[in-house]
Amino acid sequence: MYFVYALQSLKDNRIYVGLTQNLSERLAYHNSGRVSSTKGYRPWKLFYTSEEFKTRAEARIREKELKSGYGKEFLKKLVRA
After folding, report:
1. In a 10 Å sphere around its CB, with 0-12 CB exposed, 13-18 middle and 19+ buried, how is residue 50 labelled?
2. Strand, helix or coil at 9?
3. 2-80 CATH choice from 3.40.1440, 1.10.760, 2.60.40, 3.20.20
4. pLDDT above 90 (res 34)
5. Quick one: average pLDDT of 1-10?
6. DSSP label at residue 12
7. Taking the domains of the chain in order of start, what are their residue ranges?
8. Between β-strands 15-20 and 2-9, what pairing exists: parallel, antiparallel or unpaired?
9. CB contact at 8 A, 30 and 36
10. For residue 77, is it left (φ>0), alpha (ψ between -120 and 50) or beta?
11. Could you tell me which residues come within 8 angstroms of residue 70 by beta carbon, excluding any fewer than 6 positions away?
């Protein structure tokens, strides 16, 4: 199973969207600095997880939706709530 997730940087409130099969392990990677695109904005907190997807391709479609303009607005509203 795959999950689409969104993280918020506690440093500058930046939002990062990704997909994974193991949420806790992936969050640990982000917070340990092993992901170059998020390294400079640590620490991160998980604030959104989508439903489960059977295939990576299905999860990738949802990830792209959340990275779109509409998706970013949806995530920003969740952060403000």
Report:
1. middle
2. strand
3. 3.40.1440
4. yes
5. 97
6. T
7. 2-80
8. antiparallel
9. no
10. alpha
11. none
Q: What pLDDT shows up at residue 1?
A: 96
Overall pTM surpassing 0.85 (yes/no): yes
Assess whether pLDDT exceeds 80 at residue 81.
no
Q: What is the mean pLDDT of the chain?
A: 96
Cβ within 8 Å of residue 62, ≥6 positions away: 4, 19, 50, 53
CB 44 within 8 A of CB 16: yes
Tokens of 46: 């998980």
**Phi, psi for residue 58 in degrees, rounded to 5:** -65, -45
pLDDT of 49 reads: 95
Q: Are 62 and 68 in contact (CB under 8 A)?
A: no
Helix (H) or strand (E) holding 11: none
The rounded distance, in Å, linking the Cα atoms of 27 and 41 is 13
